[in-house]
């Protein structure tokens, strides 16, 4: 303030005619910012529809556990080679990791493949996404990462079902090996959402039913959900273990076997096989999915 008048002294501004220009962000910084914004957008939509997400996620695992671990033992229709409660508990031990794996797989396909087919179809939302200030492939990566987050949430939600839903005397013999669970579940989520990207960019919206009939169902039934891979050696033809070899092309078998290693003491496929093969599937699915995504966007 001036001593004479008591009024504030004016703050000097920039010299007349000079314009202050902020330094432009680098392309990498802009891409990171756009990627984070796309993921936040997907997760915000998820939280607004969280009740629907939980219901969709829990319905199939709940029905599997309810029918096989509660209804069948209660009505005397034994599961587990007719071994009574011991056999039923052994089957429960095998089934629970499979249920977690199915939840991850279905969430990965639903959150990416179904959404992607809609965005390329009648909603045309993909046109808004690709206008983000980042490379085209990064838009697809954002979808994969947000879908993997949803798959991780699904896996966490499924665990309590195994502890609560079962007939009296039938209980899965679970023992968590945390280092396997913590490393395998995120890898499985990314692998399945990468598969979802590949499927969503390979099938037209009107052919989604064909995708479920010819790809998803075989993945489920030949993915080791209800049985251990090591037991398939009993299925052979002239000494050739054809089914045990055939299912090795199924990425779900590696997730279910890895989950058995992480949650139980049941026999399972060696982890030194599970991890490298899952990484290989992840790279292949993501690579082909990104290629298809770019072609669909530019066509």
Automatic annotation (TrEMBL):
The keyword Membrane applies. It is a multi-pass membrane protein. Residues 52-296 form the ABC transmembrane type-2 domain. It comes from the Bacteria. InterPro entries: ABC-2_transport_permease (IPR052522), ABC2_TM (IPR013525), ABC2_TM_bact-type (IPR047817), ABC_2_transport (IPR000412). The chain crosses the membrane at residues 92-114, 135-164, 176-198, 210-229, 241-259, 271-290. This is Transport permease protein. Its main location: membrane.
